[in-house]
Amino acid sequence: MEISELQKDLAAAFRWTAKLNMHEGIANHFSVCLPNSEDFYVNGSGMHFSSIKASDLVLVEQNKIEEIKKNPDLVDPTAINIHGAIHKRVSHARCILHVHSKYATALSVLKNPTLPPIDQNTMRFYNRVAVYDDFGGLGFEEESNKMAAC
């Protein structure tokens, strides 16, 4: 199988995120949709961001999602659910980066986890970040659809 530029770019994003120490453990996932498709590449289960190569990425085809979910050693089912739901619902979300960085985690525990537009740095995020404040557990079917709707 030929490695695409899309795969190379996504693998580079994983390694760069690790270099910047913006990840935590191995329970984070990135995905990117194929052009004109809802099929997407995602990282496999249990791989540290710093070691992911383009050839390690798993292609999640919409017609094979249920089959892939039955093999959690291949891809974390929550990654398939969360990314699949968002890619379906938000067609312009071609690439999704899901990390548990220390900054995002700190922001998420505040009473008001939004970023008010108080200066140039925060202005870039104004009305561009969705805050999911109804977390009900792991990103399985129903929870993933609620996340995608926010």
Textual characterization of the structure:
The chain is of the alpha+beta class and 150 residues long. The longest helix has 15 residues, at 5-19. The chain is built from six helices and four strands; from the N terminus they run αβββααβααα. Helix 3 (77-89) packs parallel to helix 6. A four-stranded antiparallel β-sheet has the order 3-2-1-4, with helices on both faces. It has a single domain (5-149), classed as Class II aldolase/adducin N-terminal domain (L-fuculose-1-phosphate Aldolase, 3-Layer(aba) Sandwich), CATH 3.40.225.10. One of its GO terms (molecular function) is actin filament binding. It holds the Pfam family Aldolase_II.
